[in-house]
Design brief:
Radius of gyration of chain B: 27 Å
Oligomer: heterodimer
Order of helices and strands of chain A: HEEEEEHEHEE
CATH topology of one domain in chain A: Nucleotidyltransferase, domain 5
Organism (chain A): Neotamlana sedimentorum
Protein name (chain A): Biopolymer transporter ExbD
Main location (chain A): membrane
CATH class of one domain in chain A: Alpha Beta
Number of helices of chain B: 5
Pfam family, one (chain A): ExbD
Order of helices and strands of chain B: HEEEEHEHHHE
Number of strands of chain A: 8
CATH architecture of one domain in chain A: 2-Layer Sandwich
GO cellular component, one term (chain A): plasma membrane
Helix content of chain A: 10-25%
Chain lengths: 157, 194
């Protein structure tokens, strides 16, 4: 008679979960590869409008982003009128010229003519502020622009 | 004493660590939008603009209530594309042998002379403005696609996609010339009034 007798127990054996880490790792690698870290923290609402005749912006390092829209929930003290955001902070129309100059200075000289300005403007914004931005861009001769939009139909949005 | 096997490392918590990382990346991932409508702003010039015949200008007005006025008539956004195509492809002076329009002498002379003028007010919503821009660009794309189909058996969109594709096997130089030719046949003349 042995002292330690295994209790014989019936019932279902435990499910083997050894392959679980593999699956999780697979997902992990996917998201690690697909992740683009946000360049700017948005302080505005940025719900882009739809368009279907879109072209891709291919050279990401040659794009300057200008955001515009209503201040978001956390920044209500800045009012409900649409504001411009450059880099990480609110800006005025007059700051655009210096922003463009700084962006140009940070790029190699031969690449400067290929710089594109991407306007990421909230759909509910009035055209007044967009017109001001465009006028300012014309003054500093940054003529290539891109209205960033989501892909979709314009008619039934 | 006999050789003892090294004890196995417990890997049970590996899954937990992997989950932790996974959730971190799940939360931080934002699929960035990187497409849109490319436009070119006009440079600031001191010179007087050239005088253009009224019939060669297609006026699109967008007022503060997002209502559309095209050639002095109220219009819906969904009808704008057709109207713009009819105007651009009119070929009133007969010099454009590929135009399929009505050849109405009261409308534009040929696609090279036809200009679309877009005016908006400060109160116009950006959404509506993009919708109108999109429809006007679409009108040009439809005409260019038709022209490319007739000349080279491919749509203009395909040709541009091929030109941007590094793995495309065909003759790039010739393709670029063909694209230029079609752009010349239907030049994008979209002016915005300040």
């Amino acid at each position: 008679m042995s002292k330690f007798k295994k209790k014989k127990e019936g019932g279902i054996p435990a499910v083997n979960t050894a392959a679980l880490p593999d699956i999780v790792f697979m997902l992990l690698f996917f998201f690690m590869v697909a992740t683009v870290m946000r360049q700017n923290t948005l302080k505005i609402e940025n719900n882009l409008p739809f368009a279907d005749q879109v072209e891709k912006l291919d050279k990401k390092d040659l794009v300057m982003y200008i955001y515009a829209g209503k201040p978001s929930e956390n920044y209500k003290q800045y009012g409900t009128q649409a504001r411009i955001q450059l880099n990480d902070d609110f800006a005025n129309v007059s700051d655009i010229a210096s922003f463009i100059a700084a962006e140009r200075a940070s790029k190699r000289e031969e690449l400067v003519p290929f710089l594109t300005t991407a306007l990421k403007v909230d759909g509910e914004t009035n055209m007044g502020i967009v017109g001001d931005i465009k006028q300012e861009l014309r003054k500093v001769n940054a003529l290539k622009i891109n209205y960033t939009t989501k892909k979709g139909s314009v008619i039934n949005q | 004493m006999s050789k003892r096997a090294a004890p196995e490392v417990n890997a049970g918590s590996m899954a937990d660590i992997a989950f932790l990382l996974l959730i971190f990346f799940l939360v931080t991932t934002t699929i960035e939008v990187d497409s849109g409508l490319n436009r070119k702003l006009p440079p600031i010039e001191e010179t007087e603009p050239p005088i253009i015949k009224q019939k060669n200008i297609f006026t699109v007005l967008l007022n503060g209530n997002d209502q559309l006025l095209v050639e002095d008539e109220i219009m819906e956004v969904k009808d704008l594309r057709e109207a713009a195509i009819a105007f651009l492809d009119n070929g009133g002076d007969g010099s454009c042998d590929y135009c399929k329009g009505k050849k109405d002498p009261e409308s534009s002379d040929n696609p090279a002379k036809a200009i679309i003028s877009l005016k908006n007010e400060r109160e116009t919503s950006y959404k509506q403005y993009i919708a109108v821009q999109n429809e006007l660009v679409a009108a040009y794309n439809v005409l260019r696609n038709k022209r490319a189909e007739a000349l080279y058996g491919k749509t203009f969109t395909e040709m541009e996609a091929n030109a941007n594709d590094v793995n495309w096997p065909g003759n790039k130089e010739r393709l670029k010339d063909q694209i230029e030719k079609i752009k010349l046949d239907y030049p994008q003349k979209l002016s915005e009034v300040q």
